[in-house]
Amino acid sequence: MEKKKSNTHLIASNRKAHFNYFLSEFIECGLELKGTEIKSLRVHGVTLNDAYVVFKKGEAYVINMHIAPYEKGNIFNHEPLRTRRLLMHKKEIMRYQVAVETTNQVLIPTKMYFKKGRAKLEIALGKPKKLYDKREVIKKKDQQREIRKVLKNKGKAVY
């Protein structure tokens, strides 16, 4: 039996976004990048932790996405924190812009990956979590960890 080769290759994910926001409505979009940025992405030189999406003049831009400078780049190397345009359809831009402006939500990048050789960014609408929601998540993770620990040590005798 032949295994199908996946067309996507994960570059980076924003685990902090899942902790800080209730995420919904995920969408994949392209990015307008320079040559040295693509080369840097191929060696996993990107950080999405503080990134977010803003709308200006009917276009979507991602801010604070750090792409490390390409080490073999020359004077034409890119700025690490420059504002990058997202490639989305006008209807998608308008829909998300209305959602962000009317509700207490933000657009957060969650993943960056290569799909068929092209860099893609997955963004999601996020509603900020309150402090007590974050504590609840931590509490559940600790309980699950304790359960796994007990089940793992159940068969072993303790002396």
Short synopsis of the structure:
This protein is an alpha+beta fold and about 160 residues long. It has helices at about 15-20, 35-40, 90-100, 130-155; strands at about 10-15, 20-30, 45, 50-55, 60-65, 65, 85, 105-115, 120-130.
Euclidean distance between termini CA atoms: 48 Å
Order of helices and strands: EHEHEEEEEHEEH
Main beta sheet? 7 strands, antiparallel
User: Radius of gyration from the CA trace?
Assistant: 20 Å
Query: Quaternary arrangement of the chains shown?
Result: single chain
Low-confidence stretches: none
Strand content: 35-45%
Mean pLDDT: 86
Given the helix and strand composition, which structural class is it?
alpha+beta
Total DSSP helices:
4
Shape: globular
> What is the β-strand count?
9
Helix content: 25-40%
- Give the strand order of the largest sheet, numbering strands 1, 2, ... along the chain: 1-8-9-2-7-5-4
